[in-house]
């Protein structure tokens, strides 16, 4: 089981007890744009997902971790996705569930730990993320960690009746 400890938070593997927390996140329509979700997820499907969450990143090409306080309160999730061990790269996504917990350094600390884990333990050469053109908080978070905008995907996502651009950001481990 993976546990990464920071000063104020830690990242841990998914547990069966996370069912309600993940269900709440996956069914929160206000964040569907970020996760590219189109429909609600049932607790049954999330339970099945949790039962498979122990599989190796090299097999499933993904690692999802819970961002937790030291009081064991789940605060959010951080993912490695599209893990490409041939080209030594992966995508990263992050979400702090409650707006009142955002912009308090939680995301920055979690992202810093996952970047270090990705470069040190997984041996990745580069990480990337995709950010909607109007998500200033995410730009600030990722750019603070050294990510650079490298491309614009025009009319990439169809959201609430109109198209939105999305930026591709990248961090290369030198």
Automatic annotation (TrEMBL):
It holds the Pfam family Acetyltransf_3. PROSITE patterns: GNAT. Residues 9-170 form the N-acetyltransferase domain. This is GNAT family N-acetyltransferase. The lineage of its organism: Bacteria, Pseudomonadati, Bacteroidota, Flavobacteriia, Flavobacteriales.
């Amino acid at each position: 089981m993976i546990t990464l400890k920071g000063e104020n938070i830690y990242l841990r593997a998914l547990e069966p007890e996370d069912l309600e927390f993940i269900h709440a996140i996956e069914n929160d329509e206000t964040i569907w744009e970020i996760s590219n979700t189109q429909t609600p997820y049932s607790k049954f499907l999330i339970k099945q997902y949790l039962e498979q969450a122990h599989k190796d990143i090299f097999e499933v090409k993904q690692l999802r971790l819970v961002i937790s306080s030291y009081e064991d309160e789940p605060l959010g999730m951080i993912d490695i996705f599209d893990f490409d061990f041939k080209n030594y790269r992966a995508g990263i996504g992050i979400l702090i569930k409650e707006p009142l917990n955002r912009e308090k350094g939680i995301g920055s600390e979690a992202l810093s730990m996952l970047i270090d884990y990705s470069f040190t333990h997984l041996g990745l050469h580069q990480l990337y993320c995709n950010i909607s053109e109007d998500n200033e908080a995410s730009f600030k978070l990722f750019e603070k960690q050294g990510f650079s905008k490298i491309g614009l995907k025009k009319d990439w996502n169809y959201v609430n009746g109109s198209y939105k651009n999305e930026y591709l950001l990248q961090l290369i481990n030198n």
